[in-house]
Structures are given as C-alpha cells and as structure tokens.
Amino acid sequence: MNYLGSDAITLSRDVEVVAIPAGDTLKLLKGTEVAITQALGGTYTLMVPTYGGLFRLSDKDADAIGKEARAEAEASQAPLSAEDLEKEVWQRLKTCYDPEIPVNIVDLGLIYNMEISPLAEGNRVDVKMTLTAQGCGMGGSIAADAMGKLLAIPGVKEADVQVVWEPAWTPEKISPEGRTLLGMN
C-alpha cells in the first residue's frame, strides 16, 4: 500500500542514509518508497514509512531518487585573500542545514565561533557550533557536512567543526533572515 500518495519515489538502488534525529546510519534498499520532505544545501530529508520515519540522504546519492547531484560552484583554485576566504567560509556554512528545519545553521544561530589560521601551506578553519537541542543525534552528521564543505574551499587544508553546548542555544540567536523563513516576524 502506498502511504505517500503521488509524491512517492521508488529508490532505484540501495543507499546509505542517516536516521533523523537519532543520527544512526542504515541502508535503504532498492525499491523502497520514499517522499522528499526537504531538499536544502545538497542533502535530502526523506519520509520513509516502511522504515518508520525521516532519513537524510546525501547529495552524492541523489540519482537514487531521480535527482541530479548538485555540482558545487567551481571555485577558483587560486588562493583567496583573507577577506574573500572568510566570506567563502560563511557562504559554505550557509549551505548546511538541520534536516528538520528549513533554515541554514548560520541563520539558525548555531555557529558560535569561526577562526581561520594560516598554515605553512594553506589555511585551517575551526568552527564551534551548537544544536537546537542537546539530545539531537544529528550533531555529528551536521558537523561532518560542514567540515566537508569547508575542506572543499581552495586553500583550506584543515578544518575542525566541534559541537559545543555553552552557552545554550535559544531562539533569540536566530538571524532576522532565519526568523522570516520560520514565520517568526
């Protein structure tokens, strides 16, 4: 029986997904019916009734749901100036989303600190971020997504994204843009 109506998509191959909000990785099998509930920042949130919930699918597996993998904008391989590098870091962080909330982690106010340090060759980016709830199992997945996007920036040779809990996140940390997207204005 199809619980997803006309929005149902049948997986064309087996894929690895991350359970939301637990953060556990598992395999969805070819032929499983899914529906996309969110498609932001190069990941997809899928509703999968036969597996009992929501799951995050990476962009690299977009073909399994009939989508084309989103090509990252080709950045210049030339080293970025310090000012341009900082702008690019913030832009990349704005492509990271909590799979349950349609607002990026920067506008949600989850990024507490970002530092760029020069290395002998290239740069290191250190980020301290939090989550909207301490019990969220997606913290590791969101941090790994952010770290991967930072390491894709030309000239960034090292990146570290740490999830911290002090100070505690509150809705007041959401940017005006985030508030608008969430209908909080």
The largest sheet has its strands arranged as: 1-4-5-6-2-3
Number of alpha- plus pi-helical segments:
3
One letter per element, helices H and strands E, the order comes to: EEEEEEHEEHEH
Number of domains: 2
Please describe what this structure looks like.
With 185 residues, the chain is α+β, with helices and mostly antiparallel strands. The protein is built from three helices and nine strands, in the order E-E-E-E-E-E-H-E-E-H-E-H. A six-stranded antiparallel sheet has the order 1-4-5-6-2-3, with no helix packed on it. Strands 7-8-9 form a three-stranded mixed sheet. Helix 2 (139-151) links the parallel strand 8 and strand 9.
Question: How would you summarize what this structure contains?
Answer:
This protein has 185 residues and is an alpha+beta fold. The protein has helices at 82-93, 139-151, 176-181, and strands at residues 9-10, 15-20, 25-28, 33-40, 43-48, 53-58, 111-118, 123-129, 156-163. Mean pLDDT is 89; it is low at 72-76.
Topology, please?
Layout: E1 9-10, E2 15-20, E3 25-28, E4 33-40, E5 43-48, E6 53-58, H1 82-93, E7 111-118, E8 123-129, H2 139-151, E9 156-163, H3 176-181
Parallel strand pairs: 8-9
Antiparallel strand pairs: 1-4, 2-3, 2-6, 4-5, 5-6, 7-8
